[in-house]
Amino acid sequence: MGRATVSAILMVVMLISQCMFLLPSEELLEEEIDEKMLSPTDRNTVVADLPSWRIGDRWIYDGYLDVGDFVSSSGVSSNVQYISGTLDRTITDIYTTTIDNRSTLVYEAESQGSYEAQNVNLDGNTGDLEIEMETVELVRASDLAVIQQEASIEIDFGYRIFWWTINIDVAELTITQTYSPPTEGYDFPLTVGDYWSSNYYQETDYEGSSDLVDIPADSSSSESRSWQVMSRGAPGTPYAQCQQSYNVTTFDSNGSADGYRWFCPAVRGDVSSSTDIIEGINAFHELQTYQAGRSKEISVDLEFPLSPLNINTSAVVTVTQDGSALSGANQQVEFRYGIDGDIRSVTTSSNGSAFVEFNSGNSMDDSLGGSEAGSHGVIAWIPSQKIVGVSTITIDPNVSAIDLVAIPSGVTVERTRGQTTTTLASSTGFNAVPQDILRFYMPIQNRGLLESPPTTMNVESPDGSVQTAQVPSLPSLGQAIVEVNWTVPNAYPIGQISLSFQVDPDEEIGDDGDRSNNNGVFSLWIGRLPVAFLDMPSQSLTKSNVTLDASSSYDPDGGEFIDCNFFVERRLGTVELSGGEECIVEVEWHDDGIFDVVLEYKDNENDMVTVNGVIEIINRPPEITIASEYEWTNVLSPLQFDVEERSDIDTLTPEAPMDILWISGYPCQEGQVGVYCTVTPDEEGTYTISVEAVDDDGDIGYSNKTVEVRNIAPTNPRAEIWKQGNRMVPDSRGVYTANEGDLLSFEGLADDSENDLSSLLHLWAPDAENNPEQVITFEGRKSTVEYTYHTSGLHLATLQVVDNDGASTESLIIPIEIVNLEPQINPISDPLPLAEDSVISITVETIDTAGDQLTLRNCYDLQPTVDSDGSGDVADDCDVESRTLEVAWPDATTSPSMIVFHVTDDDGSVAMIEIPIDVRNVNPFPKVSASTFTPVEGDVVFFSANGTTDSILDMENMVYNWDMDTSVDSDGDGEPANDVDIQGKWVEWTFVGSGSRGVSMTALDEGEGSSISLSLTVSEAPFSLSGFISSYGIILILVLIIGLAGGFMMMKNREPTRNGITSVMDQTKSLKKVSMDDAFDDPDYDPFDAQSRKDGPRAKPEAVSTETNDTESEIIDSSEISISDIGIDSHEEENESIEQDTNLTEKGDEIEEEEESSEGITMSVDEALSQEDIEALFEE
After folding, report:
1. What is the 3-state secondary structure (H, E, C) of 1116-1163?
2. Which end of the chain has less neighbouring CB within 10 Å, N or C?
3. Is the Cβ–Cβ distance between 951 and 922 less than 8 Å?
4. Coil, helix or strand for 276?
5. Which of 224-233, 937-946, 1066-1075, 1141-1150 has the lowest mean pLDDT?
6. CA distance 1169 to 97
7. Closest to 789 (Cα-Cα) out of 819, 814, 746
């Protein structure tokens, strides 16, 4: 047995050990169930909670591994398909240990597995493969998560030689796998539609020995898996107690389903499982026996199975004996809420119960999924007796008193097609075809703390009809199933349909805390059945390859087939063969008869059709071969024939004799029946003798043998070569000389007997060395053939003359030296100048001999000064190999001034020309846009040069210069329209001051560039008190202070003129005023509200604003403003001011110049002066 064979076996076994007990899950097969109507009451259910295990609990499984695809792909020649066996799993111990620094109650499960494959042929060696396996598994009691497993494996191969069996110890191996955190294959409590995922770290250690293979090295890796409860129902196994099991499907890190398991609450574990270990290996197990001895039990009844975070709740722990409460008190029970480290002893009362209060906490579990924070096991156990009771509490931060939830992800469908009813789930795909009868099972769950009252649910079918179903009262986490039937109409369109359902549509339950999850929508694909065609012969011989071809099958709804299987009947039974991607197989029958062939063709919606065929296999006649010691003989010479081989490969009685009869034109010296026949031919030429063989089925096989009866052979072959009517003469070496393309005429002669001369066959090979397959024949005394050589060098022509008996002369060899002619290039005109990125097309015509013309190498060197191929010669580069060149240059500055075209024939002769190139830059084509053409002073305007075009290279390096006011020379060069105020393809700008603005954008490439302009009209900003104060408040305050000081000085130096004061006051009173005091005294006045600005403040309606160049100002009666009013204004102005970019200087004349040049960009009062400065000014 070869090393490769043993390696393949060991690989399979190691993979078995890794999947046997963890069994990651997928492949929810379509399960056929009895066609019966399930009432809503039958489908109402509560969740499946965490089971408790007991020492002595035992599960016995039958299973097998399908390894056929894996072994065949491994390169090992083998007939092994299945490795069958049993698995016996028992709980042997329950104890506490420390996991992740936490005291944890664990189960220890031991398993015994035996697997065997008999009559296995491995690389020509036949024997039995036996695998014995012992496994110890550590499982967390609070959630059945797997912590560690250790498998000890022993592999033997019983190798048979004739009647003896040699036992080969393949390997003894121990594999230990540890998971951190433990992997949660279940997330209790289980409900249809639940989804969770887990990220964990896995370590694998290998120990053992083998004389045939290397033990793998230890490994560690980070893994990610996810699970989903797909459906609840019959698992397709005969185990009667498990017809309401939960299908949990496993998905790998890529989201692909790779296995499934059916959890059965009645047996506290799996009733069946299917696992895709790796590509080509599938593991299947079904429960046969479950043994659970339980006379004394512990139950844990939670006050709230669904609980908020950090809430004090309670549990009742009850110890029962044979179903009745344990009589007497003082039973010590250990209570464990391990996730929060709550471990204590409690004592039962006289009724066998103990009341425990605990806090639900806020700890998350090791899996992610759903809205809850976590689900944790609440355990009560008697350590001395190792009896465990457990329940699951789910903590959720968003718990309502009642929360009815429609679960579209948990919808299952029973599809009845013909006489077959199939349960669909997301792993199989939800699909149907016309005339299918669909029964939808839609789950509703109460995710609230309290029991929900009865209500209704509205279901809208795909045809638009609405049905109302009754929903019963549901406990916390309770679930109900509502059924809806729908038959797909004929000719229903291909595509997705939707079925929507709403629980409590009339909102009769006022305590429903979250109505956003009361609605659900479920989709299903309506397609068509695939159309299958089976192409196969109606008859064939035994031991012949028969092709079964279904490749012309197709899916009318546009899908692709995913499975194509042929079921082929043979004498010993029916075999299943996969057609692969092509849906074609080859089959061989070993015996005659009439056999059935069935094709099963399945599309990607799992719709399957079958096609039946029949083939007649006809008995193959016997095979016989005759031979002779000599393949030729002279005429009248005796020659003996004998039977060399004889066989009947499809006979069922190999020992049966075979009758032999010689058929010959000459009598056999030994007689016509027998294994030898000697004859004497009396004619030259070919002679054929035949024989018949009759097998035990009466079929006849034929064979014949032909030999040559020779006469004398022709002799003295001669040859001459002619060119253009002149006979050529060889040189002193005996070599003829000609040019490529010359038409040469060959003449040949030979001597033979007179009666054979007219039938002589002349075989000319004009180029025997280079083209031996080309042979020119001529029959007669003298042969004449013509030939042209297209390659230079020495060529060898041969002549062989054969008579009508096949006798021939020796080959005559004629050497000919062919001289090469150099290629030529037709002149071409210079191409016109072209723009960047413009494609230039150049075609060059070349001339050479007809033979060389087809093999010429035409090349363009696009960089004549660069040795691009690194050959050391800049003249031999071939950047483009073609007679026609289509090329464009992106940059005029880097484009070549000329390119070179050169042509080379098969002898290396070269001709070349230079082609001038003139690539010119093209200025960009500018384009601009603005977010608005009528902005308001102070608004941000967005400008874009999007749409500007140029060559690709120039676009990548384009520079965009913006002159934001073409009437202002901001760079002082005397030209106001060429300023660079900002650069960029997309820019933002804020205009200060009203009026028209001319904006120019210049797009610059390596040339002069191009410009484009647009005009904008800037509207004056509406009056803003905060803006007015921030812009001119400092100046007004300074002017007011100076004015008051000056007035005071003047009043001291002269008598006041009453008339002058009166005139000023009268002039002031003639203006309409806006009082800041009134504005701030009115709490409803909003200076930014249009109506408020129109009505003005209620307290002082006489305020009016006057307009100057670009600002609004107020004339305020100073007698009406108090210091406290000014303080309020300053405080409110500080809270409402918006930060702006300004440049404030100390001098008034510099402020005015800055306002003129920058168009009114200002700084707020808060930025110019501190709060202390402003208060000091007002106090002064």
Report:
1. CCHHHCCHHHHHHHHHHHHHHCCCCCCCCCCCHHHHHHHHHHHCCCCC
2. C
3. yes
4. strand
5. 1141-1150
6. 72
7. 819
Ordered strands of the 519-526 beta sheet:
431-432, 519-526, 495-503, 455-460, 466-471
535: its two tokens: 């192409």
Buried b vs exposed e over 438-453: b needs ≥16 C-beta within 10 Å?
A: bbbbbbbbbbbbeebb
CA dist., res. 51 & res. 569, Å (int): 47
**pLDDT at res. 73:** 59
In a domain, 531, yes or no: no
Total number of domains constituting the chain: 9
Confidence of residue 548 (pLDDT cuts 50, 70, 90): very high
| 442, pLDDT greater than 90 | no
pLDDT tens digits for range 263-306: 999 999 999 998 876 666 778 899 999 998 777 899 999 998 98
Average pLDDT over residues 58-74: 77
Provide the domain limits for residue 655. 623-710
894 and 961 belong to one structural domain: no
- Spatial neighbors of 884 by CB under 8 A, at least 6 apart, are 841, 842, 843, 844
Residue appearing with tokens 């005139």 = 1063
pLDDT at 378: 95
Least Cα distance to 748 among 789, 782, 713, 772 occurs for 782
Measured CA to CA, the distance from residue 965 to residue 994 in angstroms comes to 12
Cα separation, 834 vs 662, in Å, equals 87
Residues 411-427: tens digit of each pLDDT: 888 899 988 888 787 66
Pairing of strands 623-628, 593-603: unpaired
Of 660, 695, 710, the last residue of a domain is 710
Residue 163 in domain: yes
**533 domain-assigned:** no
What is the pTM for the complete model shown? 0.50
- Residues 691, 723 share a domain: no
Instruction: Identify whether residues 243 and 134 lie together within a single domain.
Output: yes
Distance between CA atoms of residues 593 and 620, nearest Å: 12
Report residue 425 as tokens. 């789930």
> How many other β-carbons are positioned within 10 Å of the β-carbon of residue 692?
15
Q: How confident is the model at residue 36 (pLDDT cuts 50, 70, 90)?
A: very low
Averaged pLDDT of the chain: 80
The answer to whether 1136 and 1143 are in contact (CB under 8 A) is no
Domain boundary (1001, 1018, 1035) is at 1018
422 within a domain of the structure (yes/no): yes
